[in-house]
Design goal:
Rossmann fold, alpha/beta, six-stranded parallel beta sheet, 8 helices, three-stranded antiparallel beta sheet
């Protein structure tokens, strides 16, 4: 029984930022699993993606997406946020933590970009099996797996500008603790992952790197193990 003068434990607050072409909808299962553990989950969708696809325009850039998450945190008045960035979302959460470090408890990068100031997605894409030129048309990036007539929800095209905009960081060194989760598909080696160079960069920065047996999208391929790893590292 809790003592009368003992304050209730604060619930962990996660803000999950999805990757390119995606939306908050992709993390619905992970949301449910973490909510069952007593966490508070926000999974905002970036401008022009998911259910906000009607706001798409070619001028949407990386800073737009950083502002999306900064404003979610400020308008929801969130503190001690565990900020999770998946894939392209690593660019976004890096900018968010640099903008409002006092609101962020920790960053968790999930098979994600880990940029330095001046980096963009394009400059870090070299290890990927799909070339950007092959999926870029008229300033738009088309996910190659998206088939016409696919039922909703599904990934949507994304402005190329979000990949070519360079991130500009105010703080030369991270002001927020971080960990990095590298997903490793069954039957493959860690070095085979598209984001292995980003994990190596994390190690050089002194960031703890964990491995999760899952495809690049662990929210679909291993949601229970993924949610548990997030919870254990909150």
């Amino acid at each position: 029984m809790q003592a009368c003068n003992q304050a209730p434990a604060k619930k962990p607050v996660f803000v999950i930022v999805h990757g390119a072409w995606g939306g908050g909808w992709a993390f619905k299962k992970v949301d449910s699993l973490l909510t069952e553990k007593g966490c508070i989950i926000y999974r905002p969708t970036l401008t022009g993606q998911g259910e906000r696809v009607h706001l798409y325009n070619e001028e949407v850039g990386l800073q737009t997406h950083i502002d999306d998450i900064v404003n979610t945190i400020l308008f929801e008045n969130l503190h001690d946020v565990i900020l999770v960035g998946h894939s392209y979302g690593g660019m976004v959460v890096t900018g968010v933590a640099d903008s409002i470090p006092d609101r962020i408890k920790e960053i968790i990068y999930v098979d994600a970009f880990l940029p330095d100031s001046g980096d963009n997605v394009s400059s870090q894409w070299n290890n990927h099996t799909v070339s950007l030129d092959s999926i870029s048309r008229d300033g738009i990036l088309f996910p190659p797996w998206l088939k016409p007539g696919s039922p909703l929800p599904h990934d949507v095209p994304q402005p190329l500008k979000t990949f070519t905009d360079k991130i500009v960081l105010k703080h030369p060194s991270p002001a927020v603790p971080a960990i990095y989760i590298l997903t490793v598909a069954a039957g493959t080696q860690p070095g085979d992952d598209d984001f292995a160079p980003q994990a190596a960069k994390a190690r050089k920065k002194g960031i703890k790197v964990l491995q999760l047996q899952a495809e690049h999208n662990p929210q679909w391929s291993a949601p229970e193990a993924f949610a548990e790893m997030l919870y254990q590292n909150r």
